[in-house]
Amino acid sequence: MKPINVRRQCAFVQATARIFLACLFLFAITSEVSCQNHGDSNQITAPDSVAAKLTQDSLKLVAHRLDSLKQIALNQYSLDSSFACLHPAALRGIVILLDAGHGGRQDGALYDSIAEKNVNLAVTFKLKARLELLGARVHMTRSDDSDLSLEARVAKSKRLKPDIFISVHANANRHTSIDGIETYYYGRRSSVLAATLLKSISTGLKENANWMKHELLYVLHHNIVPSTLVEIGYLSNSRTNKLLNTNGYQERVAESIAVGVFNYFQLKKPARGPLIKTSKAKPNRPKR
Ligand SMILES: [Zn+2]
Fold first, then answer.
1. How far apart are CA 103 and CA 86, in angstroms?
2. Which residue in 90, 143, 201, 236 has its CB near the most CB atoms, within 10 A?
3. CA 272 to ligand 1 center in whole angstroms
4. Contact at 8 Å (CB) between 234 and 180?
5. How far is CA 174 from the centre of its chain?
6. Would you say residue 107 lies in a domain?
7. Does 146 share its domain with 17?
8. Which of 123, 78, 99, 87 is nearest to 254 (CA)?
9. For residue 39, is pLDDT > 60?
């Protein structure tokens, strides 16, 4: 994608979102006046009450649709204000595999009816959009609520051979006061990626950077590319639980991870892709 095209795309999305929000505002005022007019009428006969009920139902349906559309517009608006718009093509040529933790029958952490698998997927989609704005080619291990084994996730990484692999998770602990951000890695090649993301996420969200740990987690241990697993907050903590279930906070989480990925690739020679083993054997001389 050319930089100029991305800027045009950003400007277009911004203009569309603004026009759409203006229309929503006008429609809301019109609906309000219409509702008030209905409220003033206190002489409703039997057929009129049926008509009024139908009108109320229609208005509820329209309001529901408007809520959905407003959400889409706000999502686009938020993406448009992303730092990624300022750095189009910064990650051109980079391939990234994102892994939304759990899925299907595996809820992951489950607190106050908020399932980790849904939060992970929502954040991963938002992260994908930002990384693509930065010019990266982004793949996902799952893009819906499907069951996916750890082996299948790693197998996809081995097939695709991306530059980096990021697994997105939310945490939980029986001590509900615990909160903060953690990242995990396995092997020296992945440590810088884990450190960079820990810093960007904790800074971006203004949360504690608890730790980055060397850990024998399957998706890290069996991976062949620099990989990290990020814990974006504790669902067992009531404050973070509420935040992680909001669109706005999920956008912030995605933004903070994207900043980390951007920073990682600004480093001098960041580790990327499968480790290429160099053979110590001398190359054969071509025979005459
Ligand atoms: Zn998890």
1. 33
2. 201
3. 24
4. yes
5. 26
6. yes
7. no
8. 123
9. no
Average pLDDT over the chain reads 84
Residues near 152 by beta carbon (within 8 Å), at least 6 away in sequence: 141
- Residue 44 in any domain: the answer is no
Q: Which of 198, 201, 177 is nearest to 255 (CA)?
A: 201
Gap from CA of 164 to ligand 1 centroid (Å)? 19
Domain assignment present for 34:
yes
**One-letter amino acid of 225:** V
CA 38 – ligand 1 centroid, Å = 50
Residue 36, phi then psi, degrees to nearest 5 = -65, -40
Residues 27 and 167 in one domain: no
How many angstroms does the Cα of residue 17 sit away from the middle of ligand 1? 34
Identify whether residues 100 and 58 lie together within a single domain: no
Number of domains in the chain: 2
Please give the distance of CA 253 from its chain centroid, rounded to a whole number: 7
Interval 9-23: pLDDT, tens = 556 556 655 665 565
Q: Is 276 exposed, middle or buried (0-12, 13-18, 19+ CB in 10 A)?
A: exposed
- 17 and 133 both lie in a single domain: no
Which of 154, 164, 222, 221 is closest to 197 using CA atoms? 164
Task: Encode pLDDT of 57-71 as tens digits.
Answer: 777 766 766 665 655
Tell me, yes or no, whether 1 lies in a domain: no
Identity (one letter) of the amino acid at 176? Answer: T
The residue behind tokens 């759990």 is 102
* φ and ψ of 266, to 5 deg: -85, -15
- How far are the Cα atoms of 59, 74, 172, 181 from residue 200, in angstroms, in the given order? 44, 24, 21, 10
Instruction: Report the separation in Å between the CA atom of 12 and the middle of ligand 1, taken as the mean of its atom positions.
Output: 37
Residue 171: give its domain's CATH number: 3.40.630.40
Residues 58 and 137 in one domain: no
Same domain membership, residue 216 and residue 73: no
Q: Are residues 30 and 146 in the same domain?
A: no
